[in-house]
Design goal:
The complex is a heterodimer of chains A (198) and B (318). With 198 residues, chain A is mainly α. Chain A has one domain. Chain A contains nine helices and no strands. By secondary structure, chain B is an alpha+beta fold. Chain B has two domains: 50 residues, no CATH class; 250 residues, Oxidoreductase, molybdopterin-binding domain (Sulfite Oxidase, Chain A, domain 2), CATH 3.90.420.10. In chain B, strands 1, 4, 5, 8, 9, 10, 12 and 13 form an eight-stranded mixed sheet that branches. The longest helix of chain B is centred in the N-terminal third of the chain and has 16 residues. The radius of gyration of chain B is 21 Å and the shape is globular. Classes of the chains: A mainly alpha (198), B alpha+beta (318).
Amino acid sequence: MTRFGVFKSAIFAAALVPAAALAYGFYTNDLTANPIDYITDTTGYTALSLLLLSLSITPLRRLTGRNELIRLRRMLGLLAFFYACLHVSTWLVLDWFFDFASMAADIVERPFITIGMLTFVLLIPLAATSTTGMIRRLGKRWQQLHRLVYLAGLTAVIHFWWVVKADFREPRLFALALSVLLGFRAWWMLRSRLPLRS
Amino acid sequence: MLIKKPADIPYSEVTPRGLYLRRREFIQAAAAGAIGGAIGLSPLAIEGLHAQARTKLPNVRKSPLSTSETVNSYDDATGYNNFYEFGTDKADPKANAQRFVPKPWTIKVEGMVKSPATIDLDTLIKPFALEERIYRMRCVEGWSMVIPWVGFPLADLIKRLEPQPSAKFVEFTTLLDPSRMPGQRYPVLQWPYVEGLRLDEALHPLTLMVTGIYGETLPNQNGAPIRLVIPWKYGFKGIKSIVRMRFTDKQPRGSWEVSQAREYGFYANVNPTVDHPRWSQATERRLGEFRRRKTEMFNGYGEQVASLYTGLDLRKNY
């Protein structure tokens, strides 16, 4: 394996640590007095972190000039989706145990759940079109479609913000990180549209 | 080699983990204490290390007001806490309150009361016989526990303090000391924490001043040395580590109400029909159970307390 291959595998393994820790904690009955909330919080937090990490690849690549970083982007995005799936399944199975009436009411009436669900729905087409075959088939439209991730990042941060009762330190940190990451893109877009000055 | 299983060691003889982890400090403190003792200093450091030691409370009566439901484990009740003075994560209070020393402790009684005074806690609680009350505890976040509190009715204390006829409310305040309560170094809520009750709510026989839990002294993370428990209200009304009681004719504003008045009201009665603006209050998860259960009006204490609120619009007065 190349050195970068080892690096990539290490990141993959590190990203699976939260899931492994949850599985181990579940097995040893050590997930706090409220395991369902703990699993929900951990999977959601990890999903959001990985989503922002995937959004940091392009800026990092441009700033460092290390083009091989692009090979991490899909993996991070899919890992974020993996944790988002765990997060939504926790809600569906552990929290409500398929009580569809209550869940539907929650999606309609609770803005933080509405926007959380929207985030998940936004991620589905992105994960579904992440294969090399799909990238080739969609061509230019692939890139257009995958700009949805900017919106998903935004709705995910709002979702986190709306869950919190009083301590906004963490949501604020995520909001700041997202602003920086989207700020880079906005700046580059503006610059590319402005005429070059000599 | 034959490894024997440890014999049944009574829980009281097991060194608490926090204390065990600090055993070196203990030895140092003990040494310092010995030296200090020799030269006439009080070995306060040693007392500090014992603050979190579990002590059984003597002569605790059972109460007919207890529920017969299954009690949550000691670890649930003392390891999963909302006590923002020691951090906002549920595990923070237990982790950060170990070194807190809830003594000496005084309570300032002020406002519309016969004789305002600052009273030493031991003196204040001495006249009252302790009883165990096993109550349901419903958190505004949607989870609940069953906890065996030890304490005495707040009504007994208030009657001794003799509020003036003009007093309509009583306001409680938590200790403000960021050096001992690290959570107060960041303005998550308005510090010090404040909560209040209408005087008739405070005088209700279910309202309990709590100094113990599971037959033992109250751990710091649960609000040592003295806290309030009002079982028909959301948990946040049960103010912890109380240092002040003020009798007043104006409705007090609690810290949560100040932080988000639309979400947390003065009454905060458990009510499955009035939702928190961001989540439903119709169901709750009893810790230790898998399926959600239906939340009961006034947390199941309606028979005793509903009459307090006759004619009051509970939708507006949430």
